[in-house]
Amino acid sequence: MQQQDKYRIALLSAFALGLHGFENLLPSPIPWLRLGLANIVTLITLLLYGMRPALMVTLIRVMLASLIAGSFLGPAFILSLGGGIASTLIMGFVLHIAPRLFSTMGLSIIGALFHNLAQLFLAYFLFIQRIEAILLITPVIILFGTLTGTVNGAVSALLMKNLIKYDQKVQNVNEVK
Amino acid sequence: MSLRELFHNTTLADRIIFSLMIVLSLSGIAFIKEILPDNSTLHIYVDGRPAYILPLDKNRVVSVEGPQGKTVVEIKDHQVRIIESPCHNKLCIQTGWVSSGAIVCLPNRVVVTLGDPDKHKKTVDATTG
Question: Which residues in A lie closer than 8 A to residue B27 (C-beta atoms)?
Fold first, then answer.
């Protein structure tokens, strides 16, 4: 891994951590309902730099966030880790096999869906062991996950467009020089 | 970039998966309660002691032995009624079908209550001496 990549991963992880922390401060009507803002950074990393950096950013974000919040190796940490890894892997996989099939928005929805499914799966096997409770809550979680996933996807799409525009501007300036 | 432009940039697969997830989750919210087994129960007490705990989703007729004789309880479609009772004013039979709450036959000391008992289990808030 190049030195430059390390800096990028560190910077992106810091962005993700910041969003993660900001999200924790927001009041939520339902305690387990989260916006998943950090997924924006994961998605951007995936689109710009690929699978490995995205996975690293997610891992660093989840580890540091739980260390700061004091929930390291606790239930919230395990759910967060499982969801983060699952969503990053599936988004990377979909992007790899069919790059043109989904736009940023679709990728974000898929990521949110698998994030939720992995969390429900982990919650069932590790903590709750009551299938009817999980089944009852699954559609509600998936509905909110799809909505937040769409919003995050829209933000990511806007961000990507602006980043590309900015990048081109920088290149043009360099060419003129 | 406007919202319209944002929408135009989505692919067909995006729209399909979005609609699919919304429809599936909404129908899931609407129907999941129908699919899940109803675990509410019927409790029959005789003389203050629990005599039967029965599931409400199974239609059946139960005969309960009280101090004065047999009280016959019928369960049907999540509702309960008392068909037969040895008492003389038959208030319990006049209560008819009940889907929540309780039916009480005082002379025969039979109490029929519906619902999850843990949900309504009350503990003493405070005691004074």
Answer: 139
**Domain extent at residue A26:** 3-176
Q: What's the order of all strands across the beta sheet hosting B60-65?
A: B60-65, B70-76, B79-84
Interface contact A100-B11, CB threshold 8 A: yes
Question: Is A105 exposed, middle or buried (CB count within 10 Å of its CB: 0-12, 13-18, 19+)?
Answer: buried
Q: Would you say how long chain B is, in residues?
A: 129
Task: Tell if the pTM clears 0.80, that is, is over it.
Answer: no
Is A165 in the B-facing interface, judged by CB distances under 8 Å?
A: no
Contacts of A146 in chain B (CB under 8 A): 18, 21-22, 25
DSSP annotation of A100 reads T
Confidence of residue B45 (pLDDT cuts 50, 70, 90): confident
List pLDDT tens digits, range B54-94: 887 778 888 888 888 888 888 888 888 888 888 888 888 88
Domain total in chain A: 1
pLDDT digits 0-9 by tens, A7-36? 989 999 999 999 988 888 888 777 677 888
